[in-house]
Design goal:
Elements: H1 4-10, E1 14-19, H2 30-37, H3 48-58, E2 63-70, H4 76-89, E3 95-100, E4 114-117, E5 121-127, E6 133-138, H5 144-157, E7 159-160, H6 161-168
Length: 170
């Protein structure tokens, strides 16, 4: 089975991500997060490598998209991720959706973070309490239907990030 990096290098049609945490602060971008907390604007080259990676896929017609399940009020980390990250990454063609559970039940309660490549290769993400990645587990393709169901449920209950941000963003 391929690992996450190999799947990202070889997917042919789509890469979907479900995010469920309120804080990924332990997973990287700590310097940028600190600048955000200090009130600094994003640097002009913020996430430039990821945006270039995204463009390398989306320019070939591949889709990279994600749903983030969250509730308001946003944590400081979510304000950073959405305000700096999502808004920047859209320039690379990544699509974002928000499943806001502030006033409704979470239809995916208990489902954790994962990537799903070409609707056949699920990669489950594991994190510690600080939001640092502690492991990635590529599951067998026979589990794909389960994760397709999670993806479809998330998308059915989510709204496009730009619409959500215009109502609830800072």
């Amino acid at each position: 089975m391929k690992n996450l990096g190999e799947l990202f290098d070889t997917f042919e049609r789509e890469a979907f991500r479900l995010e469920t945490l309120d804080d990924y602060g332990g997973s990287g971008n700590t310097g940028a997060y600190g600048r955000f907390l200090a009130g600094d604007p994003p640097p002009e080259d913020y996430n430039a490598e990821w945006v270039a990676e995204l463009r390398s896929h989306t320019s070939l017609g591949k889709r990279v998209y994600r749903v983030h399940i969250l509730s308001r009020p946003l944590t400081p980390y979510l304000r950073f991720e959405l305000g700096w990250g999502h808004r920047t990454n859209q320039a690379g063609g990544e699509e974002f959706f928000i499943l806001d559970t502030t006033d409704k039940a979470n239809p995916l309660e208990g489902v954790g973070d994962f990537w799903l490549f070409d609707a056949q290769a699920p990669v489950v993400m594991h994190y510690d309490a600080s939001g640092a990645v502690t492991g990635r587990e590529t599951l067998s393709d026979d589990r794909a239907q389960e994760f397709i169901g999670y993806r479809d449920t998330a998308l059915a209950h989510a709204e496009p990030f730009s619409e959500w941000w215009s109502k609830h963003g800072d």
